[in-house]
């Protein structure tokens, strides 16, 4: 069996399975998300990706994606319920997002979570070459770094948290807080989206493990663990090229015609999740309609809510509430052939999203809490016309990088309404200045910059760069790939 110099460990493989007409299973790269984030840095690297392939059991034999080999981890339906739907998404996810939804603690979920993390660690240990680098991703696999270090102490281990990492007063509620913290600190480098998260980790390590902490370091168990902020980004050049494709431009024109050539279009694209602030957004829009600040004849809201975690009860309840509110708003304010809100509860491919981004006058990204929010960055990358307003929550990680957006506190309904009106009424010169600043930042901080920054920080010895030439001169590489 061939072993890899670089191994990525994530909850899902970079593929989606789709049933063909003859019942066979087809495989393709998933658009966006973690796959899009890592693909550009991995496509020329001799790497292996460890993850669940979807479905139950071992699944079919998987193809190679570029130079990336795939190592599936099998999960039973009971394990999916306990590890993924249970501990990861009913316990950790709400707690890490400031307890927007009340976390649920069930002891049996923890046992399944721990067992599945052990299986991921063993799979990574199996495919990693001697002194290889293993990059573990996100809250689903917080125990893997420590487990992997016990199995393979020769490895260079990185861990990256894509979602927010909570302050001590929230994390301390977890019944298994010590094991989770110790699991993360099995890594050599623990990365976050924002500096505050690294500070939270250091405080917890002091309190729970008696660790000594320094500037981006945690000294515990005779080891020094490094920490830092590495804000994740998107493939800016890929989104810009996609939005300029003739078929995408034509589709955007048709959308604009269908929505109303003279109408102002507000757009929101979210996973159907209670952290995304969809209910607050709908309430604000309903009040704008009620008070006559916007009217159906000249303004329309397009709300895309991509289905998510539909087997989790709280998500089903959220969908019912949102669909009920959309129905009430359309029933009260819509006209024949002119709904106040176009609500789309379905997945969209990247070309369709690019067309929507081109169509919007105002992009409304108002999560209550978000690690980063790549939709905001995708919108900016898609707007080569330099127009379009971005209304962005202060509580999205992207707000720290895009300060010229129309920033807003989504919990403040009056402030949200006023900000939406400011964005709708902004002068073109103001919009161009704001968008130009955001596009400049993204050009210099794209996905390649993120991956190289993290892996270069992990690779203090330089041994990984010897096997991955794209890491040897990250500054020159970034200049060469600048989409401007």
Description:
Strand 13 (299-306), helix 11 (313-333) and strand 14 (341-344) form a beta-alpha-beta unit. The longest helix is centred in the N-terminal third of the chain and has 21 residues, at 107-127. A 9-stranded mixed sheet has the order 5-4-1-6-7-8-11-10-9, sandwiched between helices. A 6-stranded parallel sheet has the order 14-13-12-15-16-17, with helices on both faces. The chain has 484 residues and is of the alpha/beta class. It contains 18 helices and 17 strands. Helix 10 crosses helix 14. The protein is globular and about 65 Å long. Helix content is 45%, strand content 20%.
Reading side by side through the largest sheet, how are the strands ordered?
5-4-1-6-7-8-11-10-9
Tell how many strands the DSSP assignment holds. Answer: 17
Number of helices: 18
Average pLDDT taken over every residue? 90
Main sheet attributes: strand count, strand direction, barrel closure: 9 strands, mixed
Shape: globular
Helix content: 40-55%
The computed structural class is alpha/beta
Head-to-tail CA distance between termini: 43 Å
- The proportion of strand residues reads 15-25%
**Model regions low in confidence, pLDDT < 50 over at least 5 residues:** 18-27, 473-484
* CA-based gyration radius: 23 Å
């Amino acid at each position: 069996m061939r072993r890899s110099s670089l191994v990525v460990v994530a909850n899902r493989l970079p593929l989606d399975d789709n049933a063909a007409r003859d019942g066979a299973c087809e495989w393709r790269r998933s658009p966006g998300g973690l796959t899009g984030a890592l693909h550009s840095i991995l496509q020329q690297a001799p790497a292996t990706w460890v993850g669940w392939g979807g479905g139950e059991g071992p699944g079919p034999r998987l193809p190679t994606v570029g130079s990336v080999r795939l190592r599936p981890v099998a999960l039973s339906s009971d394990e999916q319920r306990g590890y993924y739907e249970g501990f990861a998404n009913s316990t950790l996810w709400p707690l890490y997002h400031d307890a927007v939804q009340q976390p649920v603690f069930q002891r049996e979920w923890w046992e399944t979570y721990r067992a599945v993390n052990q299986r991921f660690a063993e799979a990574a240990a199996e495919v990693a070459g001697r002194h290889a680098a293993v990059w573990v991703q996100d809250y689903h696999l917080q125990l893997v770094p420590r487990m992997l270090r016990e199995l393979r102490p020769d490895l260079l281990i990185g861990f990256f948290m894509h979602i927010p990492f909570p302050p001590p007063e929230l994390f301390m509620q977890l019944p298994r807080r010590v094991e989770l913290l110790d699991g993360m600190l099995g890594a050599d480098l623990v990365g976050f989206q924002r500096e505050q998260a690294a500070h939270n980790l250091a405080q917890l390590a002091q309190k729970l493990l008696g660790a000594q902490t320094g500037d981006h370091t945690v000294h515990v168990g005779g080891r020094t663990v490094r920490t830092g902020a590495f804000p994740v980004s998107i493939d800016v050049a890929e989104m810009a090229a996609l939005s300029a494709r003739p078929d995408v431009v034509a589709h955007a024109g048709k959308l604009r015609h269908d929505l109303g050539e003279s109408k102002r279009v507000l757009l929101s694209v979210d996973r159907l999740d209670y952290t995304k602030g969809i209910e607050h957004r709908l309430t604000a829009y309903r009040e704008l309609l009620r008070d006559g600040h916007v009217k159906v004849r000249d303004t329309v809201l397009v709300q895309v809510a991509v289905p998510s975690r539909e087997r989790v009860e709280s998500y089903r309840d959220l969908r019912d509430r949102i669909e009920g509110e959309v129905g009430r708003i359309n029933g009260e304010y819509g006209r024949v052939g002119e709904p106040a809100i176009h609500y789309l509860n379905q997945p969209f491919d990247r070309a369709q999203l690019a067309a929507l981004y081109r169509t919007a006058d105002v992009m409304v990204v108002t999560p209550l809490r978000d690690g980063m929010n790549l939709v905001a960055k995708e919108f900016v990358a898609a707007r080569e016309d330099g127009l379009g307003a971005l209304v962005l929550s202060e509580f999205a990680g992207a707000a720290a990088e895009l300060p010229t957006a129309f920033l807003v506190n989504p919990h403040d309904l009056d402030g949200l309404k006023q900000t939406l009106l400011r964005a709708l009424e902004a002068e073109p010169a103001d919009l161009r200045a704001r968008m130009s600043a955001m596009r400049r930042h993204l050009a210099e901080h794209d996905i390649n910059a993120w991956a190289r920054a993290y892996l270069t920080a992990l690779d203090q010895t330089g041994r990984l760069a010897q096997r991955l030439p794209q890491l040897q001169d990250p500054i020159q590489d970034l200049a060469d790939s600048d989409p401007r």
